[in-house]
Sequence to fold (614 residues):
Amino acid sequence: MTRLTGRILTAVAVLLLPWAVPATAAAGSFEYSYRCDGEIVTTPGPENVGKLCTILANGPAADGQVHEIRMAIRQRDLGYVWMRATLYTTNGKAESHPFVVPEGEFELDAHDAAFAQGQAGTQVRLMTWNLLGGGKLDGKDYTGENLKQLIEYVNEVNPDIFFVVEAYGSETAILQGLNAGRASTDLYNSVPITVAEEAKYRNLWLFTKLKVAQRYTERPEISDFHFGGAKLLLPDGKPIHAFTIWSRHEDSVFAPMHHAVVNTQFGKPVSPTIDTIVGYDDTRRNAQGQAILQKVVPYYVKDDAPVLIGGDFNAWSYRDWTGQFADARGHAGLTVPWTYTKQFADAGFYDTFRYINPDAGLYPGRTWSTMSGFGIAPARIDYLLFRDRKAQVRVLGARTDVRRLPRHQGGYLDQEYPFYSDHGAVIADLLITGTGPGPNRPIVMEKPEYAPGAWPAPPAGNPIPPSELSATASTFKPVKGDAKRAVDGDPFTYYHSWYPDAADPTVSPAQPHTITVDMGRERVLSGVRFVPKLSAALSGAGNPVVNMTGTPLRGVLEVSTDGTWWAQAASVTWPRITGPNDVPLNGVRARYLRLRVDNGMGGATSIAEITPYE
Fold:
């Protein structure tokens, strides 16, 4: 094999664990090139480092054959994998999902094989989701509209196996909604996992289009409130084992991780310590994992059929927090040796999302929390895992959904609940080798979140010093929330409006709220950076808390030279993530900036820093 520093080379017939090459497959002959920023190159050179590229595969097309192409981008010295793809083609052409060209010495490991049509395998779509009180927003939606929209969304995803957490009495409505109007050959079966008379205790459920051969009942090692499953049969009669899980949520690490990353990002000591944070897994979750992996799964699974586990693990991915991703956005250089999810990896289970999207910086895959905010550290706590002892499983694609369907956006539910639950949904397309046509519908894909660097580079130009800025606001909490705190240069102080439910509406007007910055004189601006409230704070009991209330989501940036006449400079829409949001101004001339917040989380407005650049 030839090696060149800073270039990506091709190596054919390299095994991509955990999948072996089927003995019956006939090898093809494919050539590979790369599409980088729209330009096709033979191999990316140093000038392409840091760019988004895809891999193009070109090979023979033969009647009656399906070609399978498996590839991975590997870093030779450290063994890091930055991209994986498994592609199928009947015309000899295929293209991978995007990856970031890394620095140093890398190679493309690739293998292709050919199958007779009808012998490639069966595509199976998985979906896992915590529904938040049966899709009723934990009792906050009395109209039933959210559950109705939720069912419409699941129907659009159209999973073959749907792993449900927090069914809580909605299982009959979900089954009826999923099966309404479906052909008799496309109906869902309903598989109760948590068996209880009262709806509020019916937690775990499975919905599946596959034939149910056996339901796995409760074991003494772990309650069916937390784990259970079924043996399912594929169309060709092959069995697979599917389990739904809800790990204990006590001792959540979301707030401690947010706290630790914020402090580290701004040069303060790591607090809480990494050892303290990892210890949260060891309270109850690790014992649950041991019971599941050492007792329950071996009791039910006696063969080498694929094993699937989907659900809410309430734990973070150890693969996401290795040294490979220490400098990714929201990691602040930290590595965290999570123990709970590593148990499953050590037992031979693969995380479908991270397997096919191995770059945790480019594809963070946040699933918590779509409702109360994602914080600064990417929290991925919902997973679809698989174990494959006979090289039968191919991961084709995986994605997370955290936003309502376009037709459900803009309504009264959407403003406070941008998704149908407080958890994101995880969807994955697998292919089980054997009889079958191969992929027969579009593959789900995650959109890359291309955000290089642990903290975004600032806008072009020079920041205007805080000493030259002043600020006023239409509403503010005296002292602690004074508008001047948004321009004091300290990211740990913040402006905050009065809460909308305060007794006196004259000091607590509903949104829109405005905050106005006076830059002292007229300037030519290149952009402005807004940093939302970091909220690295402790509760009265000394525990880390995250409060993203007030984080702006939607509004308008206006400019003025005299403070009387205003012009709109930009409409702004920002994610529910604790991080800087920049607005380019491209030479706008102004003395005053005014941000009008039309929609902020919780109906309030809060900003840590406003920094204009000239």
